[in-house]
Each structure stands twice: as structure tokens, then as C-alpha cells.
Amino acid sequence: MSKQYHIYGIGAALVDTEITLNDSDLTTMAVAKGVMTLVDEERQNALIDYLQHHLVASHRASGGSAANTIIAASYFGCNNFYSCKVANDENGEFYLNDIHAAGVATPAHIVPPTGITGKCLVMITPDAERTMNTFLGISETLSTAELDVAAVAQAEYVYIEGYLVSSNTGRAAAIELRKQAEAKNTRTALSLSDPAMVQFFRDGLVEMIGDGVDLIFCNRDEAIGFTQTHSLEEACTALKKYCKQFAITCGGEGALVFDGETLTQVSATPITPVDTNGAGDMFAGAFLYAINQGKDFKTAGEFANLAAAKVVSQFGPRLKAEQHAELKAAFFK
What we know:
Helix content is 40%, strand content 21%. It is of the alpha/beta class.
């Protein structure tokens, strides 16, 4: 690696609470299943109160889609940097300590301001589907002030979280990060993040992508919705207008990866899903790790599918540090 960092990520900083429930609970609470919905703190607390007996016993961890990806890639062996915004509260202190413990650097010039650190309520139904209600807190004001231009120049890739499209300042920060990366010969990757972001903020995502990024991560529904097509085949063709390369996750059918020349179907790793939260984040983290190690897209896709399968086989959006090493040892023999 000729640069200091493999990946510079930007995204929301959220502390997660994971809950198991039934579809009937979602109906009672009027929660849309399978997507991320932005809520205020009062609404989120009301949901938690209703579900107080459903709490999963698990340790607290720093969350947010791009953070999960960056932390996964870090545990696999990448040297990474992350821009986010937390408040000067207990959750904010915990968040920064947790992400630093994973070996991820953050801007040294940032002093957390007064406010409330973002929180995400992750609801898991018996079919392993994840539904998220997110109170962004101070993350909603993530801006260009949280960028570190010197670190961008020292990164092989920047990785932009599509969820930032819902915040005016966050979207502006994502656009500025892409522009800085393009000026510094740093490759650009972006995740479409969620079908709801594609449905309600498509124009903003197009603005974030600009004249095109190097690599887009998305799932089948996001690919079809974003390209406004009617099939995965049509979406694969249409995506080439927005990126040079892409990786589309297709659940139990594996993934489709395009390296700029060849479209390859990558088989899924058979698994009984327990919790799909974080599957796409892990896929992106493992994929970025592999291509930063010089692996081709087919190999990267196979490794990413293996890592994502491991995540969905247990509760929580992340793996333990030692599990990353075990996956690497099993795959890269």
C-alpha cells in the first residue's frame, strides 16, 4: 500500500439497541418492516418502552452502516479512517472509544459538542429480517467540518454511506468528500444503504454520486429502485451510468459483481439466518478488504458472501475481532 489508509469512511455515528419481536408488534406500533425509518427521540423512546421485555442481552457497540463496514475491514487487516459526529455525552465517549479500539482513526481536530449522540433501534422478526428506527441526534448535523482532507489524500478508497442523503449537511459533506477524493486520486465507493433512501431521496443520491463513482454497493431492491428499472438484468446495465464497478447482494442467491469488464455471479454461502442486520455492511467491509489486498472481484465477492453469512447466523451487525481472523484463515488458505 502506497498510502497511509486503505479506506476513509464517512457516515452516521449510532449506538444500537437490538430487540427481537413479532410481525404483530410491528403492526401494533405502526412500524414499516424491513427498512430504516428516521424518528425523533420521543418516538424512539416510546417504542423502546413498548418493547422493554424484548431486549436482547448483548454488549453495546458503536454502530451506523458505514462504521460497521469500516470496523469490519479494519479487523480483517485494513488501516482505516472514519469521519462522523458524536456529542459530548456518555454514548459519544463510548462510541469513540469503541471505534478506536477497532483500530480506526478519527479526525484529531474534532471536539465533540454538546448534544445527544445518535441511537438506532434494531428490531428483528422471526424471519431474521431487520427493521430500524433511527434517531440521528447530533449525527444529523454531520458536515464538511468533520472531514480531514489530509487523510483523504492518504486513502486508497473513500467509502460514503448513502444514509447521509437524508441530512442536508451530511449530503453536502458526502459530496465534498467525493470531490476531494477525485482531486487526490483516491478511489470512490458508495453504498445505496436502504430501499427507503432510494425511494425517498433518489435525487440526493444522484447528486452525491455526481459524474460517477468508482464502486457502488447495493442490494437487488436498491439497484432496481435506484435505476428505475424492472429487473436485475436491466439494473445491472443501468448502473454502469453511475459507476465503473458495482457489487449487488442478492440474499440467498449470492451476489453479482462487475469489475468494469466482466459481470460475475457469486454463489451464496448456505446458512440459516438469525439476524440480517449488518449483512450488507459486512459484505462491503470484507469486499473492500479483499480488493485492497489485490484480489479479483470474484474472489472478493466469495469472501464477502462468507463473511456476511457469518454475520446473519448470529445476533448483532458485527463479528468479534477473533472471528475475522478465523474467516481469513479459513478462506485464504
